[in-house]
Write a structure and sequence with these properties.
With 419 residues, this protein is α/β, with parallel strands linked by helices. It is built from 15 helices and 12 strands. The protein binds S-adenosylmethionine (SAM). It comes from Devosia riboflavina.
Length: 419
């Protein structure tokens, strides 16, 4: 099951751990997910090993062969507590069971024996090989080599669980074992429990949201109780925040199944936004809104601690395509914003093209729009994320409120429509 899941992710799917419904035994599930996670997080180093071990490259049309090999290398080199013998034995067994890979079980055995002989050396591969060159170079230029070295720690360690509280009851924080981050964001000790098994989940007293993802909604300055449009809203983390802030919220997204998740989340939390399924590049509202939060679809490279696969799925061409989509949605948002209205644009991306460059473009393209700079005092505990120009740039190397564990890379800019 782990190999099938990894194969699907290598083929372009999003990483989602195996669920209890898919693999009910808790110990098996945790082992399988640990293997998948390690293979994804260590993909850069495993690529180097495979290049050395397979002289003729990866065999074509070989079913789960590549996924099994990657999982086994992850286990051999990075998870020595599980045992090298089981890695070899299970890899060969799994290969034999797959009709498309069966003829390669001898190769699997030979390759893994060579890997075992080299495992001490493989364990010492430099950590900077974990990031694809295109991102490492770009990020070092934008954020500095020291920060990027700490990004790599986040890639290896993964992300902690951050949540946003519906009500800020200290007893709730205590029951969750939470550590205060910024405003109503806390970091929770999960002790490996699934999210819906944590205290007060069913009661709808909190929702999962990385601390960085909770910043944009707090920066919107529409008039109190005003009409606010949450563009690209599903699954609704920001919709919940805007509802909590007392706005009359319309949540719009083009993806019907993601909107079903948004509706379920709002029902659990007891919020009642208006929900619209529409394409944000062409949507025209009957009445303009006092505020718009645009959480644009993006490369999501800022989420690599939770989605390591994004590092390997993205390239320059698709980032360019996403910039066009962001501009299309932005242009429509400006049309739907009332004079004097507040517009917050954000992306969970570390790519300057999807962040700072969008601000430059927007200020040139829309003469009725001005930047409404964010002041460092608006983000107590995270003042360092506010740039001298009043933009917000969070990095996985940052410690919100001095708490360890990093945060997603996010970009936020706030505008005001003048006329
Ligand atoms: C970054 S996610 C939004 C996360 C959400 N704002 C939250 O806080 O929970 C981006 C969303 O954009 C939506 N999307 C992509 N293209 C769109 C379009 N053309 N119109 C409307 N929504 C779109 C996707 O379906 C996805 O739900």
């Amino acid at each position: 099951m782990a190999a099938q899941r990894l194969r699907a992710i290598l083929g372009g799917e999003h990483f989602a751990p195996l669920s209890a419904a898919e693999l009910p035994d808790g110990r098996d599930r945790s082992l399988a997910n640990r293997l998948i996670n390690t293979a994804l997080r260590r993909q850069g180093q495993i690529n180097l090993m495979i290049a050395e071990l397979l002289d003729k490259g990866m065999p074509a049309k070989s079913g789960t062969f590549e996924a099994v090999l990657r999982l086994s290398l992850a286990q051999l080199v990075f998870l020595p507590d599980i045992g090298a013998h089981s890695a070899l034995f299970l890899a060969v067994e799994a290969t034999k069971r797959d009709a498309k890979a069966r003829h390669l079980s001898g190769l699997m055995n030979a390759v893994l024996r060579r890997a075992q002989a080299n495992s001490a050396r493989y364990g010492l591969l430099e950590d900077d090989t974990l990031l694809p060159d295109i991102f490492r170079r770009k990020w070092e230029t934008a954020y500095g080599a020291d920060a990027v070295a700490r990004f790599v720690d986040g890639l290896v360690d993964g992300a902690p669980l951050d949540i946003t509280l519906k009500d800020e009851d200290p007893a709730l924080v205590e029951a969750l074992g939470g550590e205060k981050l910024i405003a109503d964001s806390i970091r929770v000790e999960t002790r490996d429990r699934p999210v819906d098994a944590l205290p007060f989940y069913d009661d709808g007293r909190w929702w999962v949201q990385d601390v960085s993802s909770a910043l944009p909604a707090r920066l919107l300055t529409a008039k109190a109780g005003g009409n606010v449009l949450d563009l690209c809203a599903a699954p609704g983390g920001k919709t919940a925040q805007l509802s909590k802030a007392g706005y009359v919220v319309t949540a719009l997204d083009s993806d019907g199944s993601r909107l079903e998740r948004l509706k379920a989340n709002m029902q659990r939390l007891g919020y009642e936004p208006t929900v619209i399924e529409a394409d944000a590049t062409s949507y025209i509202a009957a009445e303009p809104f006092d505020g718009i939060l645009l959480d644009a679809p993006c490369s999501a490279t800022g989420t690599f601690r939770r989605h390591p696969e994004v590092l390997w799925h993205r390239n320059a061409a698709d980032i360019e395509g996403r910039v066009k989509l962001q501009q299309g949605i932005f242009a429509r948002a400006v049309k739907n914003l009332a004079p004097g209205g507040s517009l917050v644009y954000c992306v969970c991306s570390l790519e300057p093209e999807e962040g700072e460059a969008i601000v430059d473009w927007a200020l040139k393209a829309f003469h009725n729009l001005e930047l409404h700079p964010v002041a460092p005092t608006e983000l107590p505990g995270l003042e360092g994320a506010v740039t001298s120009g009043g933009l917000v740039r969070t990095l996985p190397s940052m410690a919100p409120n001095g708490v360890d564990g990093g945060m997603d890379g996010f970009f936020v800019a706030r505008f005001r429509r003048a006329s």
